[in-house]
Amino acid sequence: MGWNDFTNKRGCGTINYKKAERTPRLNKGAIYGGRVAVYLLRVLVALALCAGVFYFAFSTASNLGSMYVIATEGAELRADAILGVADKGELSGYFSEEWLASDSLLNNSPYTAFRVTSYNYSFRIENMSAWGWTDTGTVVATERVTALVGTSTDGSVDIEGKSLLAPAWTDRRYKITLKKNAQGRWYIFAMEVMEEIPKPTASPSPSPSLEPDVPANIPAGTPDPVPAPPEG
């Protein structure tokens, strides 16, 4: 007879009984430790996500900031070089060598034969786009030059015999492409002209009226009657 078997012999039958098996209880310490491990895992995942979002936002902001500086300073220095008031060699810190070699306005400046003495420069950025993980970005901006003053240096004169004035600058809207090199430095790789912006034309001023102003509350005077000539 086995340990769990109990035989009751009454009558003709034999009844076998088995001892009930007890279910082992889980260790409370193990349950608590598992819950703590799950909680810590959730906290670590949340921290990792927060760190990833922060790194993405920081990288994007850093890229946009660098692009803003390179685009604004580089475009102004390029305009200075086109107008002949800056050395082209300074542009290598902002533009790629490939773009400098292909920039037609820079290499064929219409101001080569003029001496520019003053002007007002404006560079207004409309939008910028770049992601934190990319090494390429774009800037859309409008470039304007106003109040340009310059005279010819080769003796050219106008129809009045005066020194020829420098031509007006053509304002343009650009799509600027920038790329980041292996050292993390941004450079301008292209400046695509999206449109040329015409200069505003001054509206003609109204000519002064020759008639004297008459107040509205004073009635207009009637002419004195002319007396008839005496009958002769």
What's the oligomerization state? Answer: single chain
**H/E series, N to C?**
EEHHHEEEE
Low-confidence stretches: none
Fill in the CATH topology.
Answer: Nuclear Transport Factor 2, Chain: A
| Through-space gap between termini | 179 Å
The tally of beta strands, per DSSP, is 6
How many whole angstroms does the radius of gyration measure?
44 Å
Tell me the number of structural domains.
1
Number of helices: 3
Give the overall silhouette: elongated
Protein described:
The protein is α+β, with helices and mostly antiparallel strands. The protein has one domain (30-197): Nuclear Transport Factor 2, Chain: A (Roll). 28% of the residues lie in helices and 28% in strands. The protein is built from three helices and six strands. A four-stranded antiparallel beta sheet has the order 3-4-5-6. It has a two-stranded antiparallel sheet with strand order 1-2. Strand 1 (6-10) and strand 2 form a beta hairpin. The protein is elongated and about 105 Å long.
Short description:
Helices cover 28% and strands 28% of the residues.
